[in-house]
Amino acid sequence: MAVVEVSELRKVYGGRAVVDGVSFAIEEGEIFGILGPNGAGKTTTVECIAGLRRPDGGTVRVAGLDPQRDGNEVRRRLGVQLQEAKLQGKLKVWEALDLHASFHADPADPAELLDLLGLTDQRNTRFEKLSGGQKQRLSIALALIGKPDVAVLDELTTGLDPKARRDTWALIEQVRDTGVTILLVTHFMEEAQRLCDRLAIIDQGRVVALDSPAGLVSQVADEQRLRFVPSVPLDDTLLTDLEEVTSVTRDGRHVVVSGRGEVVQAVVSVLARERIVAGELRVEQQTLDDAFVSLTGRPLDPNEDTEEVAR
């Protein structure tokens, strides 16, 4: 059963459609991801779902409710952690939870949330003294304090080191296991592949693909990629002239060949004919990165500024 339904959503700023006909549905109990580059319209879409922005077209429903007309009830059902959400630095962890609990008629037990998210030892710590990972754990706790049906997590792991990021991923999976549906906005490919049951790739305000991570990868799975170090200088045209080869690029000393069909056999045959030894030869699996490039025409830069376009 769909708990969130978005149909032909449109939002315009300064005469430009930042969100341009976005449609998707989120099923109960899944982790649904929105993946895309900076300025793609991800955060604007989420803000329309949460009722923080009024759409200029299309419809949004949360458990059948309109976020604009039924705002109070939608806010009861949604727990939202926004990309730029911050707390007053002197506020202690327990104070932040108690404050947010007071906004709800039937809040979750703050002590249980602290235990679930590994923050019990930090309950008396001021927000400004928390590490980046601890701040994100607190953000999740605040999103869950109202016992929502759906938790919206926007760029949750931006700025975290690799260990803190993976610890946060494990927490998100724990939250889903408690029965909460997760809407995860991200621009980290590994995060999307690890966590999401399904993904909507948004680019320039539009959904360009919607499927499971494996389903998206399968769309480019007919292409194979070889990586090797040639024993002598290699003229790329020896390979680009092959019918099976779609591209030849360089990565330092490595030659990277992409192609279809019997590309492995074709490349190996040419190298043998030219008496070139392929050192460190490796045939690589297609990834979500490859699917993204194939669908959008460019790679996704995980180090770019995540702030959405100016409103």
Structure description:
- The protein is of the alpha/beta class.
- Helix content is 31%, strand content 29%.
- It is built from eleven helices and 13 strands.
- The chain has helices spanning 42-49, 71-77, 93-101, 110-116, 132-144, 162-177, 189-195, 213-218, 237-240, 263-273, 288-296; strands spanning 2-13, 16-27, 31-35, 57-62, 78-81, 150-154, 181-186, 198-203, 206-211, 223-230, 245-251, 254-260, 278-284.
- The strands form three sheets. Strands 5-6-7-3-8-9 form a six-stranded mixed sheet, with helices on both faces. A four-stranded antiparallel sheet has the order 11-12-10-13, covered by helices on one side. The protein has a three-stranded antiparallel sheet with strand order 2-1-4, with helices on one face.
- Strand 1 (2-13) and strand 2 form a beta hairpin.
- Helix 5 (132-144) packs parallel to helix 6 (162-177).
- The longest helix has 16 residues, at 162-177.
- The protein starts with a strand and ends in a 15-residue tail after the last helix.
Features:
311 residues; alpha/beta; 6-stranded mixed β-sheet; 4-stranded antiparallel β-sheet; disordered C terminus
Rg over CA atoms, rounded to whole Å, is 23 Å
Strand order of the largest sheet: 5-6-7-3-8-9
Helix percentage: 25-40%
Instruction: Please give the largest β-sheet.
Output: 6 strands, mixed
Structural class by sheet pairing and helices = alpha/beta
Tertiary shape: elongated
Number of H- or I-type helical stretches: 11
Mean pLDDT value: 89
Quaternary structure state of the chains depicted: single chain
Q: How much β-strand is present in the residues?
A: 25-35%
Query: Count of DSSP E strands?
Result: 13
Q: Give the terminus-to-terminus CA distance.
A: 34 Å
Unreliable runs = 305-311
